[in-house]
Amino acid sequence: MKQMKLICHQKSFSDDSLIIGAKDFPGLQIGDIVEIYLPDDTFSRLLLQVTILKEDFQKDAISVEQSLANAFQLRVYADVIVNKVDPRDVALDSVELVFKDHYLARSDMWRWKQAMINTCVYTKKLIKIHSSMSPCQPFEGGKCTAVSGKPLMWLQVYEMWAHGEQVASGVITADTKIVYRSASSMVYLFIQMSSEMWDFDTNGDLYFEKAVNGFLCDLIAKWKDMKCNHDINIVLFSRVFYEAKSKEQFPEHMAHCVQVDYKGRFYEDFYRVAVQNERIDDWTQTLRLLKTYFNEYPKQILEHHHRPNVLFFF
Fold this sequence. Notes:
GO terms for molecular function: GTPase activator activity. One of its GO terms (cellular component) is lysosomal membrane. Pfam families: IML1 (PF12257), IML1_N (PF23013). Residues 95-132, 155-307 form the Vacuolar membrane-associated protein Iml1 N-terminal domain. This protein has 314 residues and is of the alpha+beta class. It contains five helices and 20 strands. A seven-stranded mixed beta sheet has the order 4-3-7-1-6-2-5. Strands 8, 10, 13, 14 and 16 form a five-stranded mixed beta sheet that branches. Helix 3 (207-225) packs antiparallel against helix 5. The longest helix is centred in the last third of the chain and has 20 residues, at 283-302.
């Protein structure tokens, strides 16, 4: 444990998140993990992997990349505690990594995890790594070796957990569970158009309005905050029950569509694709479309089989 003066550097100055003097830590080696925190310890401790040791660096000082220092509320020229830690003591139980606009195969998941073992990660860290079009090169000092001309993917650390608690930084080990989340998936939203959708709640709002204006709007807003580019499909569906005692009571063209549930009731399922393969930036137009479908839905469903001289049982 040693108290050092904190200075910061920009990414344009160095790609290394941590620059430390070799003379200040004689026993420190490339690949070691150090924790950095303020003496009063009011915020999460920052864990970084040593990727460079400078012989001519300023004495009793360390340099942390500016945006990283701001994220962990480390003030420039403040006194900080720097301590070498055992990776096993700061091992992560699970890590969530977010990516988008790429296809991710299971082989990629396995190779990426192997490449990230014994490396340090922190919240919102960007990890540059090879896609499935090229072999994943081993990490050198915590950084993935680039291959000229080969396409790369970016993974961003979203959440980390250790000992049942969410943490801001940690070390990935062979036992760490890595969860990959795509920010550009094909999402299917099924809205059940049951009869309750046309009922009012205690505040006078239709349950359909609560589903659309509440849940869906909040969901889209959250996706925007997380910079997601999901392709959205919205499907309206419902089940119509018929008051009949046998299939012989149904018209011939309708009988093959009718099913029987476990209670012996005759029913038919209906689906209406409202939105297909769209990336919704402006929710206003989609909201107007859903409201139009909502107003037309009962008539379209109940008169779906309506034809001259056909008798229906609802």
